[in-house]
Amino acid sequence: MTGKFSTFERRIEILLLLMKSEKVTLSELSKEYSVHKNTVYNDITFLGRYAPIRVKSGVNGGIFLMEA
Hints:
The protein is mainly alpha-helical and 68 residues long. It contains 3 helices and 2 strands. The radius of gyration is 11 Å and the shape is globular.
């Protein structure tokens, strides 16, 4: 990541990343966008209102974009 994203830009980037990746973790997104994990959690909660996002905790957990 280069530069600092606005909230809107970061959320769009997260959504695009989820479309490309099988899964990502909160920690990975936090490091990628240089924001606190709570910020990423809020982004995922927001995006979950508009996209089929699933969050699974545990050893094989992560953030997934469910297929429509």
